[in-house]
Amino acid sequence: MTRTPRNFAPRGRRLACAATLGMLVSLLGAASCGEAVRQGKGSTYLIIDELAAARGGDSSPTFETVMQSDVQTKGGVFEDPGRIRVRLGLKDVTGPTEPSSNQIITINRYRVVFRRADGRNTQGVDVPYAFDGAVTFTVTSPQTPASATFTIVRAQAKLEAPLKNLVGLGGGVVISTLADVTFYGRDQTGNEVVVTGTISINFADWADPS
């Protein structure tokens, strides 16, 4: 008598299971690829055109997409400003090209998290502490970006480790970080929207401007 092993599944059942697993993997992959388009539950989302920053203490700041942050300027400490340029995206590309008043998005706060490419990310030791801030502006158009400034490096960060340890070292020691800046908002019907941009910020006791 031939006995079927207890854990043996008929070939048809195994093929069905494999097909089901393949479908699940495909669905999960599609969900990941489409995540940006389905940002939030509303019918619009945010597209960052530019995330830039400038040294604090400059009466005419120059915003750059890679910023050198001075931990001490002429014996003092200044906050560094950031600037965001963002516009609307419409999820339904077959519909009207202009959003309705319900679809425009108001941003009201943001969060900055610093990290290093080498993986040394202990806050207050390797990188400045993460923080939350408030900034309010409304994004109304897919064609014309809205722009706003905000604080990207706080004065407190330059008075705490690890940045305060750079004072007096000139450009001999640099802490290179990536700053992930996440903006939070809602459309006019209350649907939450979130978008994140990243900028390189290199901290050192750079030479003071003349």
Order of helices and strands: HEEEEEEHEE
Residue-averaged pLDDT: 85
CATH superfamily of the largest domain: Immunoglobulins
Q: Helical element count?
A: 2
Q: Helical residue percent?
A: 10-25%
The tally of structural domains comes to 2
**Structural class, judged by helices and strands?**
mainly beta
Number of strands: 8
- Report, as a whole number of angstroms, the end-to-end distance: 96 Å
Q: Which overall shape is indicated by the principal axes computed on the Cα atoms? A: elongated
> Quick one: biggest sheet?
5 strands, mixed
Strand order of the largest sheet: 2-8-7-4-5
CATH third-level topology of the largest domain? Immunoglobulin-like
Q: Class of the largest domain in CATH?
A: Mainly Beta
Account of the protein in words:
Residues 17-21 and 23-36 have low confidence and may be disordered. The protein has two helices and eight strands, in the order αββββββαββ. It starts with 10 loop residues before the first helix and ends in a 6-residue tail after the last strand. It has 210 residues and is mainly beta. It folds into two domains: 10-38; 40-204, Immunoglobulins (Immunoglobulin-like). The protein has a five-stranded mixed sheet, with no helix packed on it.
Tags for this entry?
210 residues, mainly beta, Immunoglobulin-like, 3-stranded antiparallel β-sheet, 2 helices, 8 strands, elongated
Short account of what is shown:
The chain is 13% helix and 38% strand. With 210 residues, the protein is mostly beta strands. It has a five-stranded mixed beta sheet, with no helix packed on it. Strands 1-3-6 form a three-stranded antiparallel beta sheet.
